[in-house]
């Protein structure tokens, strides 16, 4: 059975450099035979968190929230593509993520960060690790941090030069790690019910 991976991206900026990284992730995972789908927080446009999905009476959640809850529940794993804002998380991606809780449980999550500078969004990458773990995901040890994204991927998400080649190698290792944890999670969920 084909693995289903959701790739989350959360920038609301008009000139979004990170979308090329999210598109690369979806395209590259699909080339590995994975059913990968981009979940763009800006396109879904959930309101600022007032009420979590689970706090709505059944059938009364907004349509976009209901549809996304179903996709999250059906996914085998997740990739979070995140920029760094003032050493922290993108607010759009964090807001989207916070609308859900139990829907995330017992699946692996990988983090791919980026920045215009050379640190590659490392601060946001580290901040997401604790958040995703607290939300019930298994955060894989492999990670990708893309510094100087404009010199690593062109506007179509094609790797550029030495930086792009290094990124491709890192992403390949990351995807292998995600695949291992995705398989482990699927097997465990099949053979053993979650503890609560």
What's the short story on this structure?
By secondary structure, this protein is α/β, with parallel strands linked by helices.
Taking pLDDT < 50 over at least 5 consecutive residues as the criterion, the unreliable ranges are none
Strand line-up of the largest beta sheet: 2-1-3-4-5
Number of helices: 7
* Total number of beta strands: 5
Q: How much β-strand is present in the residues?
A: 15-25%
Helix share of residues? 40-55%
Write up this protein:
With 196 residues, this protein is of the alpha/beta class. It is built from seven helices and five strands. The chain has a five-stranded parallel beta sheet, with helices on both faces. Strand 1, helix 1 and strand 2 form a beta-alpha-beta unit. The two termini are 26 Å apart.
Helix and strand topology:
Blueprint: E1 4-9, H1 19-31, E2 35-40, H2 41-44, H3 63-74, E3 77-82, H4 91-98, E4 108-114, H5 122-134, E5 138-146, H6 149-152, H7 161-191
Parallel strand pairs: 1-2, 1-3, 3-4, 4-5
Name the descriptors.
7 helices; alpha/beta; five-stranded parallel β-sheet; 196 residues
């Amino acid at each position: 059975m084909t693995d289903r991976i959701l790739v989350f991206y959360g920038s609301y900026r008009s000139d979004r450099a990170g979308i090329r990284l999210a598109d690369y992730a979806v395209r590259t995972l699909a080339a590995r035979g994975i059913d990968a789908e981009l979940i763009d927080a800006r396109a879904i446009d959930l309101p600022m968190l007032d009420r979590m999905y689970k706090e709505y009476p059944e059938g009364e959640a907004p349509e976009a929230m209901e549809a996304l809850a179903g996709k999250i529940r059906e996914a085998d794993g997740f990739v979070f593509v995140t920029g760094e804002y003032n050493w922290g998380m993108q607010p759009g991606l964090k807001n989207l993520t916070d609308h859900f809780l139990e829907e995330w449980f017992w699946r692996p999550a990988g983090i791919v960060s980026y920045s215009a500078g050379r640190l590659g969004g490392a601060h946001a990458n580290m901040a997401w690790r604790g958040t995703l773990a607290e939300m019930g995901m298994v955060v894989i040890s492999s990670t990708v941090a893309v510094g100087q994204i404009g010199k690593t991927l062109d506007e179509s998400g094609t790797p550029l030069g030495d930086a792009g080649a290094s990124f491709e190698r890192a992403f390949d290792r990351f995807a292998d790690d995600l695949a291992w944890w995705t398989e482990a999670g699927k097997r465990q969920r099949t053979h053993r019910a979650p503890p609560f």
